[in-house]
Design brief:
The strands form 2 sheets. A 7-stranded parallel beta sheet has the order 1-4-5-6-7-8-9. It has 10 helices and 9 strands. The longest helix is centred in the middle third of the chain and has 16 residues. Helix content is about 35%, strand content about 15%. It has about 300 residues and is of the alpha/beta class. Helix 5 links the parallel strand 4 and strand 5.
Length: about 300
């Protein structure tokens, strides 16, 4: 196991500027947050809301939405931006996790659930069954709950490129057969910064995944997200939006990257709220059916709204 707070190449780089006012927001109802946190902890679960310290978690909890982190709390990849713990020895798969998530969903009275997971490159199916088992358990209790999935790229484990593409497609097919209401996979950043930001993932593997999802299940909307402030230029963001539309991605989120700790990649720039509004206009003109763009927007922000 390794901690996200061990010294890294970024640890000596101090913040270049103070957090702007537009990125400061109240945490919400403390009692409600404590109630949700106790419920999650009591069920021995993980949520990306808490693991990632999402600034919107109070708002989402109040709206009946939460994002559960499946597959344990240790990721097999080491992305430079992510708060989730990283290590080459991930936790053993918990056979009761799906049932506990379903119990928590029922106790919380959630109407819309987002399921995500740590990368599990150590597993033959890269964690697809973790998603499908949890979806089945939730629906067994309440088939009316809508479930969105936010997945890793399901890439790897096969050296031959053609066979690797086939393996990725087979994993994706298994997931889509469970019929989520939305398939989400984040590009996170522009193509130039992929190697620096998303270690173990590539721009084209991710675009291929989104393209395959549209081909395999055209009735399921696809979605992707970008973090801004990592050193990208506006022209690169627009190009990325165009690339997403080229694979018929229908939904997009744009938000400001916030550095979780000094061990993580520094913020290069804080984009102004007006910049996010302009990018939202660009995205809509490109044909995205749903656009969420703002400094505090995250992948699951207002996920249950059309």
């Amino acid at each position: 196991m390794s901690s996200t707070h061990r010294p890294t190449q970024y640890s000596t780089i101090l913040p270049a500027e103070r957090l702007p006012e537009w990125l400061r927001r109240p945490i919400g109802s403390v009692s409600q947050l404590e109630q949700m946190q106790q419920l999650v902890k009591g069920n021995q679960l993980h949520t990306i809301c808490e693991e990632g310290r999402c600034p919107n978690r109070g708002e989402c909890y109040a709206a009946g939405t939460a994002t559960f982190l499946l597959g344990g709390s240790i990721c097999t990849r080491s992305c430079a931006f992510c708060q989730v713990m990283k290590g080459q020895s991930p936790q053993a798969i918990d056979p009761l996790e799906a049932e506990r998530v379903a119990d928590a969903v029922q106790q919380m009275g959630l109407r819309y659930v987002v399921l995500t997971s740590v990368a599990r490159d150590d597993l033959p199916d890269h964690g697809v069954s973790i998603f499908t088992d949890t979806m089945a358990a939730i629906r067994q209790r309440n088939p009316l709950i809508e479930i969105e999935v936010l997945t890793p790229d399901f890439w790897g484990g096969v050296a031959d490129l053609a066979k690797a593409l086939e393996a990725q497609r087979e994993r994706l097919t298994q997931l889509l057969m469970a019929a989520p209401v939305c398939f989400n996979h984040n590009l996170e950043t522009v193509e130039r910064l992929q190697n620096k930001v998303r270690r173990g993932a590539t721009y084209h593997h991710s675009l291929n995944l989104l393209a395959a999802a549209r081909e395999l299940a055209p009735n399921i909307p696809t979605k992707s997200g970008l973090m801004l402030g990592l050193g990208e230029e506006q022209e690169e963001v627009v190009q990325t939006l165009e690339d997403l539309r080229s694979v018929d991605c229908q939904r997009v989120t744009l938000g400001q990257y916030l550095r979780p700790s000094l061990a993580h990649i520094p913020v290069h720039r804080y984009w102004h709220p007006e910049d996010f509004k302009k990018l939202a206009e660009v995205a809509r003109k490109l044909g995205f059916a749903q656009v969420r763009s703002g400094p505090l927007v995250r992948s699951s922000y207002h996920a249950g709204e059309e």
